[in-house]
Write a structure and sequence with these properties.
Blueprint (H helix, E strand, L loop, with lengths): L22 H16 L4 E3 L9 E5 L5 E12 L3 E6 L9 E6 L2 E6 L5 E6 L1 H14 L10 H15 L5
Antiparallel strand pairs: 1-2, 2-3, 3-6, 4-5, 6-7
The structure holds nickel (II) ion.
Nickel (II) ion binds next to helix 2.
């Protein structure tokens, strides 16, 4: 597995739902969790490894590994909160991002069981960040256009732009 970074079109695609949760998907989820930890991430979405499928994994501060397949955020709090985010696909850049403080998410886990999670704190933050990846949205889309432009310019200067 390799991390696909800013400028790679796969990060901007709307990922496709997973039809069947089978051994292949379970293996993928396990590998994603291992890779996430190796890269010191706390969340990883399939598009970040070049796979345009609706699955992400995470490990929040409760230390529980979680797998979200075909997730849907079905509720968000009106209260919002700022928190400094980073992304394995935009290494070296961190920005305060304002998001709903709490979310309710429905998804299937790696056993195909439907789960509903009401999350707050870091867990809510990671869920929203990773869920965005499945829709081709990056955290820099949720900050001021000015800051986004600066980050993109710096990033592409340092790493080059794929396809450019
Ligand atoms: Ni990310």
């Amino acid at each position: 597995m390799t991390i696909h970074v800013l400028g790679d079109p796969v990060l901007r695609e709307k990922a496709v739902p997973i039809e069947e949760i089978n051994d292949e998907i379970r293996a993928l989820a396990r590998e994603m969790l291992v890779f996430m930890k190796e890269t010191d991430g706390i969340g990883l979405a399939a598009p970040q490894i070049g796979l345009s499928r609706r699955i992400f994994v995470l490990r929040a501060d409760d230390g529980i590994d979680r797998v979200f397949i075909n997730p849907q955020i079905i509720g968000t709090s009106t209260e919002t909160v700022g928190y400094e985010e980073g992304c394995l696909s935009i290494p070296g850049f961190y920005e305060d991002v304002v998001r709903p403080e709490r979310v309710t998410v429905q998804a299937k886990n790696e056993n195909g069981r439907r789960v509903t999670i009401e999350a707050d704190g870091l867990l809510a933050r990671i869920i929203q960040h990773e869920n965005d990846h499945l829709d081709g949205v990056l955290f820099i889309d949720r900050i001021s256009p000015d800051r986004k432009e600066k980050i993109e310019a710096k990033f592409f200067k340092k790493h080059g732009k794929k396809g450019a």
